Amino acid sequence: MFRRILIPLDGSELAEKALKKALEIAKSYGSTLLLTRVVPLIDLCGEYSSVAFIETLQRMRDKSQSYLNQKLDELSTEQLKIDAAVLVGNPASRVVQLAKDREIDLIVISSRGRTGLARWYFGSTAEDIARRSSLPVLLLPQTRG
Predict the structure, then answer these.
(1) Which of 36, 38, 84, 140 has its CA 20 to 30 A from that of 102?
(2) In this prediction, what percent of the chain has a pLDDT beyond 70?
(3) Does the pTM exceed 0.90?
């Protein structure tokens, strides 16, 4: 039984499909959903003064929180408990740690399905989460069509 389901969201259409699937599962089990978005510090690399870094980080956190608030509003008619959390850092490690901290039973995430050089260079956050987590991870592949 999945009492708590975690859905990492990055704002992409693919992540929205994972949210839709997680919602189906949650309705079946009466689960609590936890939506999360991670602000990766690598996006902040560059020549920032400490003040500019903090301001940029805060803008990114605010934007992520606004996105999650929008999702919470969209899901407000569902008869489920839904919460959201913005994190900062390495997406895979932060998602796995959040899952442990919140006693999550299932992580639902989509994968872009990169291959070849792109996979080697960019890696796969979804696969990294699946490798790091001791919890069940439902990895939804990108569908072509």
Answers:
(1) 140
(2) 86
(3) no
